[in-house]
């Protein structure tokens, strides 16, 4: 059964947050040699991908994947700058805002599904 569109978007956004968590944990795992960050990576990666899989039952794949990657990447870089892992830069903040803005724009577009359920080639 397909989730309601609002529910699918909430699941997708939660999955994007988990993407940022697993990416950060992967960076802290020292090549998957540190047990706790490796465990956090494995669990959150699995949950993030599960959520993405659930969301694409309702949201077109291209849109869902772009939003998932964009929000996850923006949160990962934002967290790295906030914690001092990466240096802060106004240009980075500007570009991250662009990623988030583009992801929000994709959400506002109509779903564009055909009667067969296949994703429309047009945005």
The portion of residues assigned to helices is 55-70%
Task: Give the mean pLDDT.
Answer: 89
Number of strands: 0
Number of domains: 1
Calculate the terminal CA-CA distance, rounded to whole Å: 25 Å
Rg over alpha carbons: 16 Å
Q: Helix and strand string, N-terminal first?
A: HHHH
**Largest beta-sheet characterization:** none
Shape: flat
**In terms of quaternary structure, what is this?**
single chain
- Kindly name the structural category: mainly alpha
Low-pLDDT windows of residues: 114-118
Number of helices: 4
What do you see in this structure?
The radius of gyration is 16 Å and the shape is flat. It has one domain (5-108). With 123 residues, the protein is an all-alpha fold. The chain is 70% helix and 0% strand. It contains four helices and no strands. Residues 114-118 have low confidence and may be disordered. α1 (5-28) runs antiparallel to α2 (35-55), α1 packs across α3 and α3 (61-82) runs antiparallel to α4. It starts with a helix and ends in a 15-residue tail after the last helix. The longest helix is centred in the first third of the chain and has 24 residues, at 5-28.
């Amino acid at each position: 059964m397909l989730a309601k569109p609002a529910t699918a978007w909430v699941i997708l956004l939660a999955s994007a947050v988990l993407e940022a968590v697993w990416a950060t944990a992967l960076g802290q795992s020292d090549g998957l040699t540190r047990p706790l960050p490796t465990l956090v990576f494995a669990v959150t990666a699995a949950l993030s991908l599960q959520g993405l899989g659930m969301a694409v039952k309702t949201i077109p794949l291209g849109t869902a994947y772009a939003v998932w990657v964009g929000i996850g990447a923006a949160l990962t870089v934002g967290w790295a700058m906030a914690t001092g892992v990466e240096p802060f830069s106004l240009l980075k903040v500007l570009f991250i805002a662009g990623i988030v803005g583009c992801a929000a724009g994709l959400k506002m577009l109509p779903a564009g599904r055909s009667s067969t359920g296949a994703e429309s080639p047009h945005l």
